[in-house]
Specification:
With 670 residues, this protein is α+β, with helices and mostly antiparallel strands. The protein folds into 5 domains: 57 residues, Helix Hairpins; 245 residues, DNA ligase/mRNA capping enzyme (D-amino Acid Aminotransferase, Chain A, domain 1); 77 residues, OB fold (Dihydrolipoamide Acetyltransferase, E2P); 161 residues, DNA polymerase, domain 1 (Orthogonal Bundle), CATH 1.10.150; 70 residues, BRCT domain (Rossmann fold). The protein has 24 helices and 23 strands. Strands 13, 14, 15, 16, 17, 18 and 19 form a 7-stranded antiparallel β-sheet that branches. A 5-stranded mixed β-sheet has the order 2-12-11-3-10. The longest helix has 22 residues. Bound molecules: 2-(butylsulfanyl)adenosine.
């Protein structure tokens, strides 16, 4: 290909990927593939300067904003740049040497770099005016971002008001990354095995998708975190070093990326990067490299920036975790909720320290789209804790006998016909053995009935031996003790312990019960919300759609799933059988009789010492009610920073209004 053609081709592909990444929150390319194209394009442009144009993606940041998008847009007060991305030690050395030269440093003058992880999430720009969060924008094209304030405000560790006594800068843009911790992501995946929004592919994609949701209530249910790493425009303050800035950010209540370190030499910079890469899997969130910033703010100023990136900061990327493997066969797997998903079984492959044997393909639509076939040579990628994914198919290595993979017509386990729901196939036979194993394991899991010793292996044995034919059979195991003892690896002691545990778990809290029985879209959190609201199983099972929708955090999808669950005769039988077996979900304590009984709280504005949710939980635990809206029934209004119209209304009604400090006092006394 001629350089001009290759350049045009690369630009086109990069633009498409940018557009997907910034506007749809997902891209078909992996970061490594993207970076590779970018590096190649830049190299070609360097070699052929006459072909460089201002419109090239190398000359700008991000994608143009989607026209007619769902969010208002605003200009950043100062441009949001990107970082020069380097992979090779030599390139890092070149970058450092250039900075040193621009600063006219002598060989023995040390230059201090402040190092921290490069977080793999989505960046955001928060504007604080006199210490109060007034706006939160996405990066957008670097000049203009989308107004995501409502969504960003739901993030638990993001202060609505800067902590401490001030004085605060009149205006300050605080930049950082919205991320989902590995643990949060796994919990979310378990909570919502499938959902109409599609499967969650990885933490970064999920964050990107979540921030674009139009309903902040849904956003709030996703475990997002914000980690601050830079400031943009600042009025009325200055920070001498990046290290000092990090300390300031932390004192204002922000989380900052850890582990951080300073490096006074190239050797130390490499050592930081290598150590971080080595510890990558142990750290609580995804990162794709190290960031090194010249620590001294005056020197940063002196170095300045190119159109795209600062000359005082670099991203030193980790090696991508990619490997080649072969798809041995493609199987249909039946999950606990009956979702039938494709799984690729791979030739065992070493990838970043683990042997990979399976890759998830998520759903049949995606499988068809990527056209993954049995026998294909593929590239797989592992991102943190998540199951590896197939990121590329080497179609050119396919043999002539290769045929596209087909979704099954019937459930691979019980052979009942399957139903299509959106992108998913479902086996709707609740007695299906595959589902049964999954359902029983889930029922016994720690966040549900918490029966230790009923993991997948044991349950599979029980189902296979036909000792367990339905969920409720778990509670009849005592009468089958003899049979149990005949099973492989079921000793006297462990069997005895298991039976004892089962007996002890017959009266679970309602929330655990609801989580355990496996209502589609009802995970641990929703189960708690429902239990709190309805208090007893009987009240929940007779709830109407409108009553369900009145529960904080319940939308149409959940309400529908709950109604359908209780309407299904088979489920009614299961519930009756559980009752018959002595299972009695305990009414959710409404904590009547606590020291705050009879009081009704409203929280408005952001609190600095706890999230609003926590505040609600605290007063509820003390017997009070917490409601969302101001009315005459409200007895106490707690006004945090940035309290708006609710406060005005409360004042009008002459309600009792407390500051956050006064509220702390109330809690302490109660
Ligand atoms: S500093 C001008 N620090 O990487 C410097 N960025 O490619 C502003 N990122 O848009 C960025 N971790 O989303 C900085 N510790 C960190 C970072 C970080 C992740 C992201 C950020 C930025 C992108 C640059």
């Amino acid at each position: 290909m001629k350089p001009a053609d290759e350049i045009e081709d690369l630009r086109q592909r990069i633009r498409t990927a940018d557009d997907q990444y910034y506007n749809e929150g997902a891209s078909e390319l992996t970061d490594a593939q993207y970076d590779e194209m970018f590096v190649r394009l830049r190299a070609l442009e360097d070699q052929n300067p006459e072909l460089l144009t201002a419109e090239s993606p190398t000359q700008s940041v991000g994608a143009p904003l989607q026209r007619g998008g769902s969010f208002a847009t605003h200009e950043h007060l100062s441009q949001m740049g990107s970082l020069e991305s380097l992979m090779q030690p030599d390139d890092v050395e070149g970058f450092v040497a250039r900075a040193r030269k621009l600063l006219e440093l002598d060989e023995d003058d040390a230059l201090r770099w402040s190092c921290e992880p490069k977080l793999d999430g989505v960046s955001a720009n928060l504007l604080y005016e006199d210490g109060v969060l007034t706006r939160g924008l996405s990066r957008g094209d670097g000049q203009t971002g989308e107004d995501l304030t409502r969504n960003l405000r739901t993030i638990r560790n993001l202060p609505a008001k800067l902590a401490g006594d001030g004085p605060f800068p009149a205006k300050i843009e605080i930049r950082g990354e919205v991320i989902m911790s590995k643990r949060g992501f796994t919990a979310l995946q378990q909570r919502e095995e499938t959902s109409s929004e599609g499967t969650f592919r990885n933490a970064r994609n999920t964050v990107a998708g979540t921030l674009k949701l139009l309903d902040p209530r849904v956003v709030k249910r996703r475990p997002l975190d914000f980690l601050a790493f830079a400031v943009g425009h600042v009025e009325g303050a200055a920070y001498p070093t990046h290290t000092a800035l990090r300390e300031k950010l932390a004192s204002w209540g922000f989380a900052v990326a850890e582990p951080a370190a300073t490096a006074d030499s190239l050797a130390e910079l490499h050592a930081y990067h290598d150590e971080l890469e080595r510890r990558r899997d142990e750290l609580p969130y995804e990162m794709d490299g190290a960031v090194a910033k010249v620590d001294d703010a005056a020197l940063q100023q002196q170095l300045g920036r190119t159109s795209r990136t600062p000359r005082w900061a670099l991203a030193y990327k980790f090696k991508p975790r990619l490997a080649r493997s072969r798809v041995e066969h493609i199987d249909a797997q039946v999950g606990r909720t009956g979702a039938v998903t494709p799984v690729a079984h791979l030739a065992p492959t070493e990838l970043a320290g683990v042997t990979v044997r399976n890759a998830s393909l998520h759903n049949w639509a995606l499988l068809a789209e990527r056209d993954v076939r049995e026998g294909d040579v593929v590239e797989i990628q592992r991102a943190g804790d998540v199951i590896p994914e197939i990121v590329r198919v080497f179609e050119e290595e396919r043999g002539p006998e290769s045929t596209p993979a087909k979704p099954p017509a019937a459930c691979p386990i019980c052979v009942n016909p399957l139903q299509t729901e959106g992108k998913f196939l479902y086996c709707v036979n609740i007695d299906c053995a595959a589902q049964l194993v999954g359902r029983v394991v889930h029922l016994a899991s720690r966040r549900a009935f918490d029966i230790e010793g009923l993991g997948p292996k044991q349950v599979e044995q029980l189902v296979e031996a036909e000792i367990v034919r339905s969920v409720e059979d778990v509670f009849a195991l005592r009468s089958r003790e003899e049979q149990l003892l005949k099973l492989d690896r079921w000793g006297k002691r462990s069997t005895h312990n298991l039976l004892k545990q089962i007996d002890e778990r017959r009266e679970p809290a309602l929330a655990r019960f609801l989580n355990g029985v496996g209502i589609r879209h009802v995970g641990e959190t929703t189960a708690k919300d429902l239990a709190q609201h309805f208090s007893t199983l009987d009240r929940l099972r007779t709830a109407t759609n409108a009553e369900l929708l009145a529960v904080d955090g319940v939308g149409d999808e959940v309400a529908k799933a709950v109604l359908e669950f209780f309407a299904l005769e088979k489920n009614q039988q299961t519930l009756a059988a559980l009752h018959e077996a002595g299972v009695r979900p305990q009414a959710c304590e409404r904590t009547d009789g606590g020291p705050l009984t009879g009081r009704v709280f409203v929280f408005t504005g952001g609190l600095t010492t706890m999230s609003r949710d926590e505040a609600k939980e605290r007063v509820e635990a003390l017997g009070a009610k917490a409601v969302a809206g101001v009315s005459k029934k409200v007895t106490d209004v707690v006004a945090g920073g940035d309290a708006g119209s609710k406060l005005a209304k409360a004042e009008k009604l002459g309600l009792r209004i407390h500051t956050e400090d006064e509220f702390q006092e109330i809690l302490a006394q109660a």
